[in-house]
Design brief:
The structure is a single chain. The protein is an all-beta fold. Helix content is 0%, strand content 51%. The chain contains no helices and 14 strands. Strands 2, 4, 5, 7, 9, 10, 11 and 13 form an 8-stranded antiparallel sheet that branches. Strands 6-3-1-14-8-12 form a 6-stranded mixed sheet, with no helix packed on it. A hairpin with a 5-residue loop joins strand 10 and strand 11.
């Protein structure tokens, strides 16, 4: 895979609604590469007024919250990547940092525990995790979820940050 790296954007809206336009596009992928299919989005939430908590977005798309955080709507999405190698090729996957920060109108929020949708699911770290491409065509897709720490009374607004993933 020759160390292909993608820098990804994270987005989170707290107690806010928005409309986004849809479009059409095509991407041509070269062998031994990978692309982003979708950004990691924790979606819209309402913060707790009594304590901080976590929003966990599992690689299968399930979103859960703790300590009074309310999950609103279905605007959340796991990050998803796709690429092509060869059948039985071993690839190593890592993230650029074990923790990243989302910034916005209030205090920054920590994102950690980036989890790949392998079987079993595995937490990605800065130390490469090794996986085998099982597809006879060498084409692969994998989702990535993560955990977001939300402070008590986190101010409403859009929070964003970047992270990178390397194959």
């Amino acid at each position: 895979m020759n160390g292909a790296k993608l820098y990804r954007q994270l987005k989170l809206a707290i107690a806010a609604c928005g409309i986004s336009a849809m479009g059409a596009e095509a991407v041509v992928v070269t062998p031994l590469s990978f692309i982003e299919v979708g950004d990691l989005k924790f979606g819209t939430i309402i913060q707790s007024t009594t304590s901080g908590g976590n929003v966990v977005l599992a690689p299968n798309g399930t979103r859960t919250a703790t300590n009074g955080i309310i999950l609103v709507g279905n605007s959340h999405e796991v990050a998803e990547f796709a690429g092509q190698g060869t059948q039985n090729q071993i690839v190593d996957i890592s993230v650029g940092a074990n923790t990243i920060w989302l910034t916005g109108p209030g205090p920054r929020m920590r994102v950690r525990r980036f989890t790949i949708g392998s079987t079993p699911t595995t937490i990605l770290t800065t130390n490469p995790q090794f996986f085998r491409i099982g597809s006879p065509t060498g084409i692969f897709r994998f989702p990535v979820g993560a955990e977001l720490r939300v402070r008590r009374n986190q101010p409403a607004g859009l929070y964003t940050g970047t992270w990178d993933i390397t194959l």
